[in-house]
Design brief:
The chain has helices at residues 57-73, 105-109, 140-143, 275-284, 313-323, 327-336, 342-352, 359-371, and strands spanning 14-18, 23-29, 35-42, 47-53, 77-78, 87-95, 123-127, 131-133, 137-138, 150-153, 157-159, 162-165, 173-176, 180-182, 184-187, 191-194, 198-200, 203-207, 212-215, 219-220, 223-227, 230-233, 237-238, 241-243. It has 373 residues and is α/β, with parallel strands linked by helices. The chain has a domain at 313-371.
Length: 373
Amino acid sequence: MPLPETAPTDPAPCHLESAERGEFIELLLHASGTHLRVRSGSIGKPCLVLQTSFKTPERALASHQRLYKEWQEQGFVPCSPSAPVVDGSVAEELFCDARTPHPLLDAFLAINGADELRGQPRRLALFRQGLRWHTDFDLERIADFGLHAGVIVEGDVEVAGVFSQLTYSYPGQTLISGSIHAASFGHGDSHMRVMGDVKVDNIIYGEYNDGSLVINGAMYGRAFITLDHDMYAEGGYHLPICEWNMQENWSDCLHPELFEYDDEDADEPGSMVSAEAIRRFMREGRDPFRPGARPVMREAEPEPPPPPPPPSPFAQRVRGLVDAEDVEGLTRLIETWPEHSEEWEQALIGRLYAPSTTPEQRVRLKALQKKKP
């Protein structure tokens, strides 16, 4: 739900910075005492804004104090802002009990494992205007605040670096109603649905067999590398696919630095792909293929044949009389049907020579045949 804007009566925000990381966090309890705003990101860059509400001021204050303590323990120091704080992507809250209706809530709850949240007072981070970030963005960044059970992005994700969920802990479910645009994209142990396309400059990567990713659109990029992961695009693949479970010989095509060494004394890398090496190639924007390699695009599956047209009213009537073994009814239908189409002619000839047709019915059918123009 949208939360109130800051007012003149609101207390001053608590601002902390880490010079080593070049990042900040700012915590603000609204004057109501039950609403908390968190702003966090790189100093001098548009930041992530999370807005949450609580039933009581005590709960809001406890969350404020917990976050303040956790960031101090990470080396953030209370201070005045060293640069103006500029809002970037804003996450409001949406509750799984549908106290505030939203058209994407049912689609979120239909994701694998999300149905257990239905009807619960658990909050989701809702980005109404999409999600944009100036560098790498892992969804664990939202988990650092410990306030949300899942994520809904209404619109596109646009990340200048690597967009990922590769930390195996959060969020359990993510719904993106638009497309993903990033340098690379990595997905691991969670369940995600992207209703649009995934378009990257370099690598789309999936790992670990407890997660799933459904892309309603298509994949675009330099390579799709999947290691034991349920990850597919309904709209097709416009890039080479390295699916490790398919037992294809990708070691002659992928860069040798992407493979783990079987032991410390080995002279050559083994056959297992290194998850850490793929992450490094994604961060550095490196080509995952050997120099001069020409990876082959997987052939698209042929389109299924179109379904047969529905039977005509005449054919439906014929089928019903055949099933009922009503030979006289069939003869009368042929005699009285106004449209003498090709379908009708086939039925007429079929009845003329059918063993079940009586001599009297055959005379009537032959008379119809003589009347044909």
